[in-house]
Each structure stands twice: as structure tokens, then as C-alpha cells.
Amino acid sequence: MIKYTQQSFHKNCKFMFTSIYNRILNYCNSVYKSPSSKTVKKMKEESARWFIDLLQQRYSTGTSDSPCIHTGNKCVIIMVDNTIYNPGLADKLRGILSIYSLCKEKHIDFKINWTYPFELTEYMLPNKINWIIEQEKIKYSLSDSKIVVIDTLPNIHASRQSIIDKKIFDDTVLNSQYLQYHIYTNSIIHTQAFPNLFRELFTPSEKLQSLIDLHHKNIGEKYVAASFRFLELLGDFKDSEGMDEMLPPREQKLLIEQCYIELKKFIDTLPEFYKILVTSDSERFLAKASTLPRTYIIPGKVIHIRYKTTDTSAYMKTFLDMFLLSGAESLVLFKTGKMYNSGVPRLASQIGNKHFKIHEF
Predict the structure, then answer these.
(1) Which of 36, 192, 245, 278 measures 20 to 30 Å from 75, CA to CA?
(2) Per its UniProt entry, which superkingdom is the organism in (predicted)?
(3) DSSP E strands: which ranges in the chain?
(4) Contact indicator for 190, 296 with CB cutoff of 8 Å
């Protein structure tokens, strides 16, 4: 075997990364209006850094520049680890369901390696498909495994993004011969099939299911959901979007009051026998919302799941929120000003096959 020198290693990394991104961008340019050159440059610079870091940290460099050709069964592994690309819960699950749908179509083995910041099996277990893979079976060798990044691009409609994502999958997985494909993704594909795909892959852990049952009993069968995503605007939540703007104290109070009033108006339009499940990334707002009649708040600490914490109940609440949201008759995301277009209620509505809308005010 020919071993990489440091120079040839970086050269090969650069080639692999550039090849992936050029395929994405060339396809965009041929069909749709492409992102601005400034945006593309920033994406490539930032992504190239973690791409090379990933290869250096995890993957064996004792291979030739020409990878081996394998003829055995391919295996796609969704990677959610502590190296790179650690988005929120909705992005992670959306990517998993999307890539699973393609593997199902093409009869490709499908596994999930979700190890950071927690083991997925603490909260969700395999249902009809055994997606668990033992760590010793993951091949961190560039001759056996291909790293695939399927990342959504800015300012592209979901239907267009789906076409691009399928193209990348075909180019990188179907048209090559490796034993394993380590995929990092927040892809958007076959969302209409999410209810069935989710049920095929996942069932709640025993502890999570007991909490789901408890809260379903408390809230009752007739409830709708209202979600509010503030990011760091109210100063009580650490986010991962790089949007670290915090409003001045006076504006924080005004925003909380504005959302409180809008929620009250919404509640007044509902029949009296309906309860309202309220979810948010702000504990301050949840405390305020809990003073309204018929509101139901799942207690617990709120964190972004990309961060490591010893308080695992915070992760449990995140999954519990999602499952309770998916059981609502309808879901509304409230948004004003610099509030965020959260993906969790939308994904929950897709999983539960329920009506979803964004209410801007």
C-alpha cells in the first residue's frame, strides 16, 4: 500500500471535498439560480476546514490514492458523532428519514451511528428495521469507506433541494463501489413518506414511552400545539446557529408580551374543550405562557441537543416535545421579528401527518 504524505493527504482531501461541492453547485447552476459567490466561498471555506479535520482525526491514511474496488453489499451509515456537522434534532431526523427512503428504494443496507452528545438508543429504538451498527464494524479507512456530505443549500426551495440531494446520492453512492458510505446530512427527500418511514425505523424507548403515555393522559385527546423559537433573543438559551444576538432587556420584555398576547388570541379562537400544548426554547416564555388558561407545558430544562450535558432529562424533554407535538391535531409556529423558523414543529407535523402552518404577526 502507498501511504499518504502530509502533502498528498491534504491534496487528496481537497480533491474529494472540491469534487463533492462542485457537483452540487454545477447542478444548481444548470437548473436554478445559484447562491451568491460570496455565500459559496464562505460555505466552501468553512466546510473544507471541518472536512479535512474529520479525515485527519478519524480515518486511516494508510491507503493508496486509488481506492479499492469492492463488490460486496454496500452499507450506508448515517453519522451523528462528535467530529462535524451537528445540527438540531429536526435536521438530524429529517436527514435520516430522507436517506433511509433512498436506501429502501435501492435495497441498500442502512445503519445509524448516533453517538453524540448521547446514544440515540437511550431515547429511540429500532422498530421494523435494525439500524444499529456496532462500533467495531465501522470502517474508518478511505479505501473501504466513502465520506458523503449532503447538506442543504441556502435560499433553495425544498422541492428543488430534494432533486439536488437525490443527484448527490446517486453520484456518490450508486455510482461507486465502497463497502461503507458515511453520510453527514440534513437532507430533504420524500417528506410525504415520513410517517411510514419514521414508524419503520423508530419506536420510543421504554422510559420515553412511559412519559409520552403520562402526558397524553394529562393533556387529553383534543389538543393543538403552539411553538415559539426565540434562539438567543431572550438571553436564556444557547443556540447553535451562530445567531447569538440577544435583545436588550426592555425589548425582551416587549417580545415576550407580544407573543403572550398573540397566543391568548389564538386560544380564544379554539373550542373550550381543547388544550394547547406550548413548546419553546425559552423557559422564560414558557413560564409566562403557563399562566394562560388551557395551556399545557411539558416541564424540564430546555437545551439545544448539540451540546453535552450531564442532565440527560433535557434530552428527554426534547424528544418528548417532538412526540407530543406529533400527536396534536394541528401545529402552529408563531413567528415575529427575528424569531426563528423552527424545524421541529414542521417535522413533528410530517411524522404525525398533521396540519402545520406558520403564523407571522
Answers:
(1) 192
(2) Bacteria
(3) 75-80, 109-114, 124-126, 145-150, 180-185, 202-204, 223-228, 275-280, 295-296, 330-335, 355-360
(4) no
Task: With cut-offs at 50, 70 and 90, classify the pLDDT of residue 266.
Answer: very high
* C-alpha cell, 62: 494508510
- Burial-class residue 187 by CB neighbours within 10 Å (0-12, 13-18, 19+): buried
Query: Minimal CA–CA distance to 26: which of 47, 38, 40, 15?
Result: 40
* CA–CA gap between residue 76 and residue 133 (Å, rounded): 11
DSSP lists the bridge partners of residue 75 as: 109, 180
pTM of the model: 0.84
More confident call, 251 vs 7: 251
Flag whether pLDDT at 50 surpasses 90.
no
Nine cell digits for residue 13: 482531501
Phi, psi of 69 (to 5 degrees): -100, 120
User: Domains along the chain?
Assistant: 6-200 (no CATH), 205-360 (3.40.50.11350)
CB-based contacts of 92, cutoff 8 Å, min separation 6: 80, 114, 186
Could you report the per-residue pLDDT of 94-138, keeping only the tens digit for each? 999 999 999 999 999 999 999 999 999 999 999 999 999 999 999
Of residues 325 and 86, more confidently modeled:
325
Query: Given the C-alpha cell 471541518, which residue does it identify?
Result: 50
Burial class (CB in 10 A: 0-12, 13-18, 19+), 82: exposed
Q: Count H helices, E strands: the chain? A: 10, 11
Plot region of 357 (φ>0 → left; ψ -120 to 50 → alpha; else → beta): beta
**Which of 314, 319, 318, 343 shows the shortest CA–CA distance to 331?**
343
